[in-house]
Design goal:
By secondary structure, the chain is of the alpha+beta class. The protein has 9 helices and 18 strands. It is globular, with a radius of gyration of 23 Å.
């Protein structure tokens, strides 16, 4: 019990100190950010008479340097590692909205990176461009909207884990943070056609994302520098539908259906306000699917990452059965401009404690094989399977463990004016290990923000967060808005 309560107490302390803006208000904040300063400064009479802006741009330069704290003697070694002691990212971000007519606009979001790591010093850094979004959006009859192009289509009411965010898999190009909110905003969009009809009592949303030719080394699949990497975001045909009902005061349930290749997914989002300061919410999705290990192995075989028909190092059937994913939680906003989210996450396809025991047992066997040159290749193959599952979980943005707690708190103008504090904690309820991220942002000027964050993965050797490398990192950054 001590090992579980310790991270929970740590999370509570973080919530008193630190971070996060409401996931339910992210879109509203983005829209406000697109309002030009000259319009905000106008009187009501001037604003009503002014011509609407046809071009809106948001450009900023982001610099982030990270120092890693390495962990010694991993219980399950990484088969091949290029872990560096530090890395640096310099990126230029652009968000543009151009109105061709009152009913037709073009939206584009792009990020150009320059990435440098310790093990790249001799050959220099790497340039990478992420065209995250580019789509045309139009409306007619005042209730029908249509988007065509590459769209970052986000779904879900939870903050730490979104079971109904069906287009999130493999969409994160470069993991700039462990903050789920930032990952949702900074990912590659999906090539799709999306239509939405809005009426007084609700709305209907339909989307179709086609499979794109997976030929390698083409401009739409190339992973180097300026390739679009549509093979990551459009690797099969997908169909999405959502119905939102506005029939009840302060309660607008959503019902979703998503078809991915040969699998149907069903989901729902429910939110309910309690007074002026609290919101409770539930996000659920269910589908016929294998567990995480079986799914990661099957997809690795299909992509050629591991050989076909190679024996699996963990007992896991390839068969599918109906499995549930759930995020249930509440948010509370205090008068001191601090909002806290507490969520319970359930991923039925994730690792139980028995699965973790098997994972570490297979790792110990592989570690023994590494000591003999005759069996070293076999040991590396076993380790490759074990770490493939962890990588798959991260890229799919699914919790690897079956039961976990997530806490996120954001404090605006904390302690002093212009200082924002954020705290994130994710706890494995089976073994008590946890991840914690405190972060501070200071708005030095209107267009300059300085930040400092620490990532910590805490736990004993044979726990989820105690078995990763690095043990943590420290990141300092600066963002300049043009």
């Amino acid at each position: 019990m001590i090992r579980i309560w310790f991270p929970i107490l740590t999370a509570a302390l973080l919530s008193v100190m630190f971070t996060s803006s409401s996931g339910l208000c992210v879109q509203q904040d983005e829209d406000l950010g697109l309002i030009p300063d000259n319009v905000l400064s106008q009187s009501a009479e001037e604003a009503s008479a002014a011509e609407p802006e046809k071009y809106r741009f948001k450009v900023y330069l982001d610099e982030a340097a990270t120092a890693n704290i390495k962990r010694k003697n991993l219980a399950v070694p990484v088969p091949s590692s290029n872990d560096s002691g530090w890395n640096n990212r310099l990126s230029l971000d652009l968000k543009a909205e151009m109105d061709f007519s009152p009913n037709l606009s073009l939206i584009m979001t792009d990020r150009l990176h320059y990435l440098l790591e310790e093990n790249q010093e001799e050959s220099g850094g790497r340039v990478q461009n992420d065209l995250k979004e580019v789509y045309v959006t139009g409306n007619s009859y005042s209730f029908l909207y249509l988007d065509i192009g590459r769209v970052n289509f986000k779904n879900g009411v939870a903050v730490g884990f979104n079971p109904t965010d069906y287009f999130k898999k493999n969409a994160v190009s470069y993991r700039i943070s462990e903050d789920p909110n930032l990952l949702r905003e900074n990912r590659l969009g999906v090539l799709m056609a999306r239509a939405q009809g809005i009426w007084e009592k609700g709305s209907v949303t339909l989307a179709f994302a086609p499979e794109i030719n997976q030929d390698p080394d083409t401009w739409w699949t190339d992973a180097d520098s300026y390739g679009l990497r549509l093979d990551k975001t459009n690797n099969n045909n997908r169909f999405f539908s959502k119905i939102t009902l506005n029939a009840f005061p302060d309660f607008n349930p959503e019902f979703l259906y998503f078809f991915d290749s040969d699998r149907s997914n069903f989901g729902t989002n429910l939110t309910k306000g309690i007074g002026d300061a609290a919101i409770i919410y539930l996000e659920w999705s269910g589908s016929n699917r294998p567990d995480i290990f079986a799914q990661s192995m099957t997809e690795a075989e299909e992509s050629g990452t591991i050989p076909h028909n190679s024996p699996w190092v963990m007992d896991s059937g390839r068969e599918s059965h109906f499995q549930n994913q759930l995020a249930i939680g509440f948010s509370y906003t205090e008068k001191v401009n601090r909002t806290t989210f507490v969520e319970y996450h359930f991923n039925e396809a994730g690792f139980s404690q028995e699965d973790w025991d098997k994972w570490f047992k297979a790792g110990a066997e592989a570690r023994t094989l590494l000591q003999n040159p005759a069996t070293e290749a076999l040991g590396l193959g076993m380790l490759g399977q074990l770490w493939t599952t962890r990588k798959w979980s991260q890229e799919a943005q699914e919790p690897l463990s079956r039961h976990s707690i997530f806490i996120r708190t954001f404090w605006e103008d904390a302690l002093i004016h212009s200082l924002d504090l954020t705290g994130i904690t994710r706890i494995n309820l089976s073994d008590g290990s946890f991840f914690a991220q405190p972060m501070a942002e200071y708005h030095l000027k209107k267009n300059l923000t300085l930040s400092l964050s620490v990532n910590l993965f805490i736990g004993s050797d044979e726990t989820e967060y105690g078995s990763v490398n690095p043990m943590g990192d420290i990141k300092a950054g600066a963002t300049y808005y043009f």
